[in-house]
Amino acid sequence: MSLVMTADPETSYMEIPTGHIPIMVDEVRDLLALHPGQTVVDATLGGGGHAAMICEAISPSGHLIGLDQDQEALERARARLREFSVRQDFVKSNFRRLADVLGQVGVPLVDAVFLDIGVSSFQLDDPRRGFSFRSEGPLDMRMDKDVQVSAFELVNSMEKEEIAHILWAYGEERFSRRIAEGIVRARAQRPIATTTELSDVILRSLPYRFSRDGIHPATRSFQALRIAVNQETDALEAVLDQAFTHLKAGGRISVIAFHSLEDRIVKEKFRTLAHKGVARLLTKKPLRPTEDEVAHNPRSRSARLRGLERIS
Q1: Could you give the CA distance from residue 126 to residue 228 in angstroms, rounded to a whole number?
Q2: How far is residue 146's CA from residue 115's CA, in Å, rounded to a whole number?
Q3: pLDDT one-digit tens code per residue, 163-173
Q4: Are strands 304-310 and 110-116 parallel, antiparallel or unpaired?
Q5: HEC profile of 173-202
């Protein structure tokens, strides 16, 4: 069965407000059933918006363990959350190493784990990070700047078949082969070094009638390359297993995903655990943002929220 990809937050030509706006905050709080004194992991701190809600709910004696692989995100979150009295541990780490982080802070079991999967608004809006086709920037896309391989290396060194595979597997780009061919032709002249250069190559590779689709023509390709650079699907599989292992009985996990590939991984993992009788689904179908939230924050429109409770 073919997946139908839901677009990433950056999906249209419309002007999108900048800055970090946490998505479905009330729904996340309710799904996690937060209350004072709990120990909660926010494995994707980002701008600290959800973490602020978590700190408020578990105050004054709770414990927040915050992870992010982006050092700048950690610094923003630390500044934003210093007003709360809860114990706070911030760790620079990919969430695929959640078990190691919990060992590092001396917490074997937690009450709740939250994940907001994908690129943050701060990363997307910063041209220097190279995530967006909307502005000129280096072709980077690394969430963790210490990672050696960037989108530049992938685009300018991979074989045509490898590029096409990434564009299809992670973006379900129907013109993956045409775009891969266009990339190889363009880089034969000179390396593709910036986001706008790559966007232009993608646009030129598409049949004209598909170059003005409902979403920006480069959306799926940029999404696919970002996932490949950061190995996001492997990391998601790993963190879901580790989060459940380190969850107390009665503890909860909630995950916001932004496209169907990620959401399918979460759905299948949660259903497998529920089928084994060790967990209870809190959302048989994903929760979606309200029309009012989408109107105020267009980037929320493709968000899907799922929750799970450990029962044994």
Answers
A1: 20
A2: 22
A3: 999 999 999 99
A4: unpaired
A5: CCCHHHHHHHHHHHHHHCCCCEHHHHHHHH
